[in-house]
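Just curious. Invent one:
>
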Amino acid sequence: MKALLPPVRVSPQLYASFERHARESLQAVRNLADDGTPLYFPDGSGNYPALWTRDFCYMVEGAGRFIPNDEILGCIDYLLAGQREDGVVPDRVYADGHPVYCAGPESQPLGSGPPTDNPQFLAKLLCAYVKLSGDHQALAQRMGAIMAAIESVPLSREALVFIDPNSPHSGYGFTDCIAKTGKVLFSSLLYWEACQRLGATCAAYEYHEDAHYWYERAEAIGPNLHEFVDEEYGLFVAASGDCKQLDIWGSAYAAVIRVASKKQARNIGQFLIDFYDEFVYHGFVRHLLAGQNWQRLLADIEPGAYQNGGYWALPVGWVAQTLALVDEEIARMLLADAAAEFDEHGVSEWISPSERRLQAYAAGAAAVLGCLQPAKALA
């Protein structure tokens, strides 16, 4: 598997600030299920009272050392207990064990089917657990469930994740209110990454047949991801159908996981520098450039709010890593601004010039931390 872009080097003081926020957020979101299983909700405000698959994956990938290994595996099995017979992974599972498969309120789901990212996040989560614990048998024992989950993701002939324009539904969960259709970027990036991680994890423990299987799945999709590149700007677009718009989050993530070539990644980094003020506010990052909103929605979201123009903590680390390819000082400036926002207002899910939403948003705090490393030379 290709190595990720290197973490951004920051001062020990700045690193310690992000580390503290991640640790405190994880403490704030820990709750107990009715059966006693420790669950990690997305936020400490009580707004999301369930174990969300993708949010928990981000927590473990970025700050898993602050969560006991047995609790990580317990959450994985809590999610797997709700897996459907067709392989579909729950979007979330509540404290009473009730799984929900579609995004949005259960009585008014966002679109016609489940999000196209939860299987990938479950696979990545299990690989992250194995990396932390060394418990490779946990992966071997759950391989059938992971295979069924990945098989449930709808694909185009090019092996890219696909959403029917005539039957839209959520793709990537952090845009689950957005009706991206056709071939969709972020879920496709996650699909490639999940297969790569499964292949690498299996290879590390000499599960050779499984490793070969997953690497072949990754190779089938890898070259086709460049279909999303906008030739004029060099960034990746969010989808081939509805919402074929320059995707700031997706472009940075494509650079971080090295789907983008070295030249493409540097070009993305330069674009982000050139248009920095068009997507950054207090160190948080917008999905699209300023003045742009998503072209098609699954829910009525006011422009400038939430997923339709709000600024988020979650992708800050990816953007910083991509900026650092061109200018490390600008990357550290972004992170310092985000840390100042955390220190003054807490870890919000998203912010705008007129509001801040939720507190102790653990996925955001953990995701940023996972993209950093302390450097004594910067003290």
